[in-house]
Amino acid sequence: MVIDDSSTIRRSAEIFLSQAGYQVVLAEDGFDALAKINDHHPALVFCDILMPRLDGYQTCALIKKSARFHATPVLMLSSKDGLFDRARGAMVGSAAYLTKPFSKDSLLAAVREHTAGAAVPPPHA
After folding, report:
1. Under a CB-based contact definition with an 8 Å cutoff, are residues 74 and 37 in contact?
2. What's the start-to-end Cα distance of the chain, in Å?
3. Phi then psi for 97, rounded to 5 degrees?
4. Bridge partners, residue 48, by sequence
5. Which residue ranges traverse the bilayer (predicted)?
6. Parallel, antiparallel or unpaired: strands 74-78 and 45-48
7. What percentage of the chain has pLDDT greater than the value 70?
8. For 75-102, how does the pLDDT look when each residue is reduced to its tens digit (9 = 90+)?
9. Residue 116: is its pLDDT beyond 90?
């Protein structure tokens, strides 16, 4: 799942992940994501920090408080690469922090790292 209020970021992530064989669910903000997460049960969530209505920290905290999704890795996305932002992400349960703009390689490396051993269908060729 990719949660970001930027259609450009959502589209880039969708292209990179789809080309690698992953199924992608897109959400434009935290409320949209929370409405979709139960139906799709993603193996991994990329979550932008700066979003309207419900920011990434709040969205991550709500996902991690859920018994069903507590073990689902949430990776924060942000154009800011500060220590405070990383620490705040870790405090709400994020597994990692990816700085935007991300490359295809860094996005796919993050997926591989955080889904190792998880029940994620391997990408098809």
Report:
1. no
2. 21
3. -140, 120
4. 77
5. none
6. parallel
7. 93
8. 999 988 778 888 999 999 999 999 999 9
9. no
- Residue 111, H or E segment: helix 104-115
Q: At what angle do helices 83-91 and 56-65 cross, to 10 degrees?
A: 30
Topology adopted by domain 2-116: Rossmann fold (3.40.50)
Residue entry with tokens 């935007």: 100
Q: Which residues pair with 99 in a beta bridge?
A: 78
Q: What is the pTM of this model?
A: 0.90
What DSSP element (H or E) covers 46?
A: strand 45-48
Torsion of the alpha carbons at 75, 88, 3 and 79, rounded to the nearest 10: -90
Q: What angle do CA 78, 82, 84 make, to 5 degrees?
A: 105
